[in-house]
Specification:
The chain has two domains: 125 residues, Butyryl-CoA Dehydrogenase, subunit A, domain 3 (Up-down Bundle); 115 residues, Nuclear Transport Factor 2, Chain: A (Roll). It is 53% helix and 16% strand. The protein contains twelve helices and seven strands. Strands 1-4-5-6-7-2-3 form a seven-stranded mixed β-sheet. Helix 3 runs antiparallel to helix 6. The longest helix is centred in the N-terminal third of the chain and has 24 residues.
Length: 292
Amino acid sequence: MSDADWLAERFEAERARLKSVAYRMLGSVDDAEDAVQEAWIRLSRSDAGEIANLNAWLTTVVARVSLNALQSRKARREHAVDLHVPDPIIELADPADAEQQVIMAESVGLALLVVLESLAPAERLAFVLHDMFDVEFGEIARIMDKSPAAARQLASRARKRVRTAALPDPDRATQQRVADAFLVAVREGDLEGLLALLHPNVVLRVDGGTVRPGASREVLGAQAVAQGAIRFSTLAPFALRVLVNGAPGFVGRAPDGRPVSVLAMVIRDGRIVQLYALTNPERVARFDLPVG
């Protein structure tokens, strides 16, 4: 095996982990892939023999690329009203599939990603690397050009914010039962049934994107969310049951089977406390979603 082949093999062995780091940093599948690709470009141009710890070196590169992307993104969005929903990770919901169970266990919920997006870039970096990937504060400090004490403080501040993220029921069966009941109630136009499933203070976040800015909104309260959901009762029969970041959700489809939206939910104590709807046609079209 040539040195180039050996290096490519080592990189491929790290690709999934690196993409996990970048996805948690950026909340975008495409941006995460770009960050990982940039790490490969830099590695291929480096003297690998001089790299003492390849795993740590690659993590550092991906983290720095992600941090730069976050800082640029923050500058662009600084004065915008942002109802952005992070890219969902979508898999067909098949509880009997062992691989699906692994995906569910390793996925990061959209509620957590939304909270991460509210953090300052440095806070997000410190929290993701330390709390999710066990990177030591000394290494994080070198990435950010700060002291280890400063890196620890950034992670601590982020941790306090992350605690506000809605955590789902640990019982996956309970989550699926509530999600299925929600879809049935929407299909039947059952307002009372929906109100029984929704927490009184449920929040629905809709991301229509730049193509449909008028569709982006935040809806508060069970009554408003239930009434809004019933408006889609004619499309509910075409919805596809999926896992969205490891939790029960649905792909909304037109009568011809074309995917038009993704709906994720956070279910706690048997009730839906948060809903996230991605209706941005440009982003929905990029996902590898079932048709028909």
